[in-house]
Amino acid sequence: MKIEKMNLSDVSSIQEIENASFDVPWGYNSFVSDIKNSSSINLVCKIDRQIVGYCMGWMVEKEFQLNNICIIKDFRKNKYGYSLLIHLLELLEMLECEKIFLEVDEANYKAINLYEKLGFVVSYIRKKYYKNKNDALVMFRSLM
Description:
This protein is α+β, with helices and mostly antiparallel strands and 144 residues long. The protein has one domain (2-142): 3-Layer(aba) Sandwich (Aminopeptidase). The protein is 31% helix and 36% strand. It contains four helices and seven strands. It has a seven-stranded mixed β-sheet, sandwiched between helices. A hairpin with a 2-residue loop joins strand 3 (50-60) and strand 4 (63-71). The longest helix has 15 residues, at 80-94. The chain is globular.
């Protein structure tokens, strides 16, 4: 497994993963825009040369907002998501980031469990946030 910075050449593969994983996927141009954003930190997880996952977010001052994270369904039980987040957290600590925030669907128990294992706690709830009317749990973790 290798984790590296996301490049524009990765977008087609990432878009395929996104489309297969989410009911309301990000569009191609959203990925391109995010990669070009100077405040973004975007990583891919590769097995051999195949992208099996990615994470994307923005660093604003000393806080990071994790906007998107996904692992291909067939690879989800192999701790690649955990490894990707550990890599991100280590990178953020090197950049002297103080906090990381994310939001997760209240019904996504596997993701919530992963985030809690990594020290995230629920900060507040956004009621009926998602298209399916589920609440979003806004979670954070202090890094410093």
